[in-house]
Amino acid sequence: MTFTAHINVMPLKELLDPQGKAVMSGLKNLGLGQVQDVRIGKHITLQIEAASQEEARQIAETACQKLLANQVMESFEVQIQ
């Protein structure tokens, strides 16, 4: 069975997000001062062939731990469909 893994990788909240700060500055320059904070991350979609949804989740989490996310600086969240 084929499952789709949606993975969001975000910088840890404790770390500065230079891209987010740059976008925040740009939004303020555009008159959008109502925006309070910006964090920029990555969205990754994987098509996974697995016997079950739990097996697909384990494969996606392993991919994140080994390659897709730098766990020193980033967190990740996996959703399987």
From TrEMBL:
Task of the protein: Part of the phosphoribosylformylglycinamidine synthase complex involved in the purines biosynthetic pathway. Catalyzes the ATP-dependent conversion of formylglycinamide ribonucleotide (FGAR) and glutamine to yield formylglycinamidine ribonucleotide (FGAM) and glutamate. The FGAM synthase complex is composed of three subunits. PurQ produces an ammonia molecule by converting glutamine to glutamate. PurL transfers the ammonia molecule to FGAR to form FGAM in an ATP-dependent manner.
Catalyses which reaction(s): N(2)-formyl-N(1)-(5-phospho-beta-D-ribosyl)glycinamide + L-glutamine + ATP + H2O = 2-formamido-N(1)-(5-O-phospho-beta-D-ribosyl)acetamidine + L-glutamate + ADP + phosphate + H(+)
Molecular-function GO terms, alphabetical: ATP binding; phosphoribosylformylglycinamidine synthase activity
Enzyme class, broadest EC rank: ligase
Any single Pfam family the record assigns to this protein: PurS
Signal peptide feature range: none
Biological processes, Gene Ontology terms: 'de novo' IMP biosynthetic process
CC annotations in GO: cytoplasm
Pathway: Purine metabolism; IMP biosynthesis via de novo pathway; 5-amino-1-(5-phospho-D-ribosyl)imidazole from N(2)-formyl-N(1)-(5-phospho-D-ribosyl)glycinamide: step 1/2
Entry protein name: Phosphoribosylformylglycinamidine synthase subunit PurS
Keyword Heme recorded: no
Family designation: Belongs to the PurS family.
Source species, domain of life: Bacteria
InterPro entries named among the record's database cross-references: PurS (IPR003850), PurS-like_sf (IPR036604)
Species: Chitinophaga ginsengisegetis
Gene3D superfamilies, alphabetized: Phosphoribosylformylglycinamidine synthase subunit PurS
Enzyme Commission number(s) of this protein: 6.3.5.3
